[in-house]
Design a protein that fits this description.
- By secondary structure, the chain is α/β, with parallel strands linked by helices.
- It has a domain at 35-96 and 157-266: Rossmann fold, CATH 3.40.50.
- It is 29% helix and 24% strand.
- It has helices spanning 63-71, 102-107, 115-125, 141-153, 171-188, 199-205, 231-245, and strands at residues 23-34, 37-48, 52-56, 80-82, 87-90, 159-163, 191-195, 208-213, 216-223, 262-266.
- The strands form two sheets. Strands 5-6-7-3-8-9-10 form a seven-stranded mixed beta sheet, sandwiched between helices. The chain has a three-stranded antiparallel beta sheet with strand order 2-1-4, with helices on one face.
- A hairpin with a 2-residue loop joins strand 8 (208-213) and strand 9.
- It is globular and about 45 Å long.
- The termini are far apart.
Amino acid sequence: MDARLSYFAFPDQTPVPAEPAPSVVRLRQFHRRFAENIVIDGLDLDIAEGEFVALLGRSGSGKTTLLRTLAGLDPAPEQDVQVPSSRAVVFQDARLLPWKRVWRNVALGLKGAERRERAEAALREVELGHRLEAWPLTLSGGEAQRVALARALVREPKLLLLDEPFSALDALTRLRMHQLVLDLWQRHKPAVLMVTHDVDEAIALADRVLVLDKGRIVAEERITTPRGARGDLAHGLRSRLLSVLGGDQGALTSVPPSIPSVVPFRAELAL
């Protein structure tokens, strides 16, 4: 499987709807306000078990606020927010402790006699079994992010939150990280919410793409074409998503019949 965009799907085959998986994330009429500034405004959101969701939005749209809430970094008492207790976050900055060797960064917070064995196994999964004793400052940017992924997945979270984890990487390393994330996601099967500014990245990786604007989900696209086979649909979908991100509120109200593999199931316009 290749996260890069290339196309060989059969456009006359309509996907058969599957039974919906149980939700691991559920928000209903979620609000977040800072003084007079409304950041999240009556947001409803469900993420199913094992689903990969990408969240797009302009700066200030509420993406980071939403992610911090789901991560438990900003508690939301007395609001209808349900998230699993088992969750992990990978940030844009790997946030490794420079005074701890790589395996100790991965094992941070783990308990029990097998903590080193678990850390080593996680590092082997991200192809860093040879860097167990390295210091974080000797790692490349891609290696540091792989350590951050290992640290997140060693806990077997039900929800994995990715906050623009590839934005500081060069193009080739990003493609390799895309493939690694997909491999790890398929192996561990967490639900994933990935915040990104990269529309192509969202199309290549996600089952579902959301656009957040002024604290509300204003557009939503479900992609059923297999990853690595999304080249022909990418141009039209990219254009519509960019139009919404640029303020064209009518861009996702319909989908051309020539792209049946993309199923838009909501296009709510911000007021």
